[in-house]
Design brief:
The structure is a single chain. By secondary structure, the protein is α/β, with parallel strands linked by helices. The chain has seven domains: about 170 residues, 3-Layer(aba) Sandwich (Rossmann fold), CATH 3.40.50; about 90 residues, no CATH class; about 170 residues, P-loop containing nucleotide triphosphate hydrolases (Rossmann fold, 3-Layer(aba) Sandwich), CATH 3.40.50.300; about 190 residues, PCRA, domain 4 (Orthogonal Bundle); about 45 residues, no CATH class; about 35 residues, no CATH class; about 50 residues, no CATH class. Helices cover about 55% and strands about 10% of the residues. The strands form three sheets. Strands 9-12-8-13-14-7-15 form a seven-stranded parallel beta sheet. Strands 3-2-4-5-1-6 form a six-stranded parallel beta sheet, sandwiched between helices. Strands 10-11 form a two-stranded antiparallel sheet. Strand 4, helix 10 and strand 5 form a beta-alpha-beta unit. The longest helix is centred in the middle third of the chain and has 29 residues. It comes from Candidatus Egerieicola pullicola. One of its GO terms (molecular function) is exonuclease activity. Keywords: ATP-binding, DNA damage, DNA repair, DNA-binding, Exonuclease, Helicase, Hydrolase, Nuclease, Nucleotide-binding.
């Protein structure tokens, strides 16, 4: 029997399922609670707390994928491993390369260079929809001639090649669901079982095959849907759930399974603030009725820009925490990915513990930047720029000061590859050379340090360069040997020990240490995948790095929460909103929130509209995707139990306006008495919710008032801010300050030398004059034939020529010309790097 539990968002459908699970009598028949894969952890925890240990032990809380994988591994143990996402992506890239000569639209290598992720996503959607390469090719031949038909035929060819490469070495977890349906049918594994499906708004074709066996063999299948048959929004907002409702009813009639009368759970009243209940009832209705009561639970904030917007949100979270809310009671939904770094900075400034669920790409990590530099040095010329970039990653034995010395030396002489392969003997002071014994001693010591780094890099990288084009296995081993010669692992271990022994910020240090370890694990996994899948295929340095970069782009360095009590942060549709009391949505901009889900990545919007008309299973038209976007926005807006906070920026830092989402206008009309704030009119004291934020406000204050004097008095009692507070006070009294005469004498000397050029420098820029003449800090200069160098050259030639004149016979024009040319040649050989004499300049 098929039964439905229908109700709108937060009507208590899940609680009703748990009550029915509690009421089930004890028996040996299987009981399953099926949830979306991303919700199984929270579902298990809630089910355990509600049912207790004894009742929970009789129930299997799982998702379709995990259930299918368990059944397949039990009855069909495979000798081949299951392919993960990275291995699939690499196989897809190989399939694209092998199918290249057969393709039409994607025939050029440039069109295939970044196609693998989109092609893999499309193929997996087709596979979940039950469409194999032959069926896709047949579908394509039914279309009229054109680009769209050629695209589908290309996709079918790549799909077939990918399947061959995949099944030759691995099994595909995506095929487990369809295979599990056959096993259940063969062994009658669901006989007499009870099945509860909660939280679904769409079921792919392979999941429907497994659901068929549940309907045929099980005693009862209960499905919850976010749907109210009497709601006027049924065919618009709840169109997804309504489509699945009719689809399941048709499937039950086809199988001859009875359908029980649907149970519609009424929306509870009095549980949430009246304004939030009205929001759930009226949002996206054709003719919404305005809520004429005060709506304190709904707040709208207008900020000048995104930076000030996130500062206000972080301050609001701290304010709520002071009022008794736990951080885990709050969640922040980002409108777009652009808010990620801004939110991280603001939450850290306001000392708000948070967990950002989206993984970070490893390509920005120091280890992957170092590997990229290694391949750049191996693939092309031995660029000194790449050599210093490698050392700057901080994973070699040389600290920042020594790397800076090398970079300055290379810049001073403009050394290229040939100059890097020769010993460093040129003066660190340029053409002038050392002027005294102390400078000669410093030059000797520094040149020794520079030569040590030069030999270290050459000894490490040259054996790797000699590999040239070789097999993927040899290239992988060569890369690992290179990292050992660079002492990267040793330096990383030493840094990890420092982090683990840190007592000032132990949580942040342990998190950084864990991230470094995951970085190494990720690099090892990716290189292993390349070596195993490509095997003895010959690859070049650039090709190997392209594959490694492709895999790294699709790999995330996952993070774990650093505290049990923290604010969850994520994008709309990706964040699990369960038992959230305060929901804060930032970046409510036009086209961002609500956001229309993207279509199939291989096809444009017009092409997907046409494919939807031809009924390709994975194609969705514009109307369908708009309905999905509104449904997910409805689920997000109704996620907060007590307060809803929405913010949006008026523009960016360049002054360009950012249009707000039409949703804000709809909410303002629906709740005319909701709290609406403009950040310019906001009390600055409400932004002062942490010491760091308060001190930033004090430092930015342009004038002294009651607020700044209060802050100054507060920080005057904090010893850690004493030095910074003194600097702020001195800055405000700059008009009455005078330079200390002994300090001036120490900087410029008792009798400073003045010339017209120095006076001109002072009036052009006093600060530059202070840096050059006082602190003796000069901008970096490259050796070149400027007027100053020309004068030095003429002076040295004159000295050497005159020293070689012994008699009047040496004063002939021919002899003087010969002596001058010899002196010039000797001067250039002594002062210019190797290879520079070949340059006509």
């Amino acid at each position: 029997m098929l039964t439905f539990l229908l109700g709108r968002s937060h009507s208590g459908k899940t609680q009703r399922v748990l009550e029915q699970l509690v009421a089930l009598p004890s028996s040996d028949r299987p009981v399953y609670l099926l949830l979306p894969d991303q919700s199984t952890f929270e579902g298990e925890r809630r089910c355990y707390r509600t049912l207790g240990a004894k009742a929970f032990s009789r129930i299997q809380v799982t998702g379709f994928s995990r259930l299918a994988s368990r059944l397949v591994s039990r009855y069909h143990p495979q000798g081949r491993p299951a392919a993960d996402a990275k291995q699939k992506l690499l196989l897809m890239q190989l399939a694209l390369e092998e199918a290249g000569p057969l393709l039409t639209v994607y025939s050029s290598p440039a069109s295939r260079s970044h196609l693998a992720p989109a092609m893999l996503q499309t193929v997996e959607q087709l596979k979940s929809a039950g469409m194999d390469p032959a069926a896709l090719e047949e579908f394509a031949h039914a279309l009229p001639e054109g680009t769209l038909r050629s695209k589908l035929l290309d996709t079918a060819a790549v799909y077939a090649g990918y399947q061959g490469l995949l099944l030759r070495r691995f099994t595909d977890p995506l095929e487990d669901v369809a295979q599990a349906a056959k096993l259940v049918q063969e062994h009658r594994l669901f006989a007499g079982g009870q099945f509860f499906l909660d939280g679904f708004d769409f079921l792919s074709q392979d999941k429907l095959l497994l659901l068929e066996q549940m309907l045929l063999q099980g005693e009862r299948v209960t499905v919850t849907l976010t749907l109210d048959p009497a709601d006027p929004r049924r065919e618009s907002l709840f169109a997804l759930s309504d489509l699945l409702y009719h689809q399941l009813r048709a499937l039950a009639r086809k199988l001859g399974v009875p359908v029980a009368a649907k149970e519609v759970i009424p929306q509870p009243t009095g549980v949430r603030p009246p304004a939030l209940e009205a929001l759930e009832q009226q949002i996206y209705t054709p003719k919404p009725a305005a809520y004429d009561q005060p709506a304190e639970a709904i707040q709208l904030l207008r900020a000048p820009n995104r930076q000030e917007e996130v500062q206000a949100v972080a301050a609001r979270i701290r304010e709520l925490a002071r009022k008794g809310y736990r951080y885990r009671d709050m969640a922040v939904v980002m409108g777009s990915e652009a808010y990620r770094p801004l939110l991280q900075s603001a939450l850290e400034r306001y000392q708000v513990p948070y967990y950002l669920d989206d993984p970070m790409s490893p390509l920005g990590s120091p280890l992957f930047r170092l590997v990229q530099c290694c391949f750049a040095l191996a693939a092309g010329s031995f660029s000194p720029l790449q050599a210093t970039a490698l050392l700057k990653c901080g994973l070699t034995p040389f600290d920042e000061s020594r790397v800076g010395e090398l970079e300055n030396y290379l810049y001073l002489w403009g050394l290229g590859e040939e100059g890097f392969f020769a010993p460093f003997t040129l003066s660190i002071y340029g053409l002038d050379g050392p002027r005294n014994a102390q400078q000669r001693q410093e030059e000797t010591a520094r040149l020794a340090r520079l030569e040590e780094m030069r030999k270290f890099l050459l000894d490490a990288v040259l054996p790797f360069r000699k590999l040239g084009e070789c097999s993927a296995r040899v290239m992988t081993q060569g890369l690992l040997d290179l990292l050992d010669r660079l002492q990267v692992r040793q330096v990383t271990q030493e840094y990890l020990q420092i982090l683990e022994q840190d007592t000032e910020q132990p949580a942040q240090s342990l998190a950084a240490a864990a991230q470094y370890r995951r970085m190494w694990e990720t690099l090892g996994e990716l290189c292993t995948d390349i070596a195993q899948i490509l095997g003895d295929r010959v690859v070049s340095f650039s090709r190997y790095w392209q594959l490694l970069e492709l895999l790294a782009e699709q790999t995330g360095l996952e993070t774990v929460p650093q505290a049990l009590d923290c604010v969850n942060v994520g994008q709309s549709g990706k964040l699990h909103l369960e038992q959230v009391k305060v929901l804060l949505i930032v970046g409510v901009e036009e086209g961002v929130f609500p956001q229309t889900p993207a279509g199939c990545p291989l096809f444009g919007e017009g092409e997907e509209e046409l494919l939807a008309q031809y009924q390709l299973p994975i194609a969705r038209d514009r109307l369908r995707r708009t309905q999905e976007g509104r449904f997910y926005a409805y689920q997000t807006l109704t996620g907060g139990e007590q307060q809803l906070f929405l913010s949006f920026p008026e523009g960016d830092l360049q002054g360009s306006p950012i249009p707000p989402s039409p949703l804000l206008e709809e909410l303002s009309a629906l709740f005319p008495q909701c709290r609406q704030e403009t950040l310019i009119q906001r009390d600055p004291a409400r932004l002062c919710q942490s010491q760091e934020a308060g001190f930033a406000l004090l430092a930015a204050a342009q004038q002294s008032d009651v607020f700044t004097k209060t802050l100054e008095d507060y920080f005057s009692h904090r010893t850690e801010y004493a030095g910074l507070l003194q600097q702020i006070r001195q800055g405000r009294q700059a008009a009455s300050q005078q330079l200390d005469p002994p300090l001036v004498e120490q900087l410029y000397g008792a009798h400073p030398f003045l010339s017209p050029s120095r006076v001109e420098d002072f009036y052009r820029c006093p600060f530059q004059f202070f840096c050059k003449q006082g602190l003796k800090l000069y901008p970096r200069r490259q050796v070149g034939y400027d007027p100053l160098s020309r004068g030095n050259l003429v002076h040295e030639i004159l000295c050497k020529v005159l020293a070689q004149i012994r008699s009047k016979e040496d004063l002939t024009p021919q002899r003087l010309q010969q002596l001058a040319e010899e002196c010039v040649q000797l001067y250039l050989e002594q002062h210019l790097p190797k290879g520079s004499l070949d340059n006509p300049r």
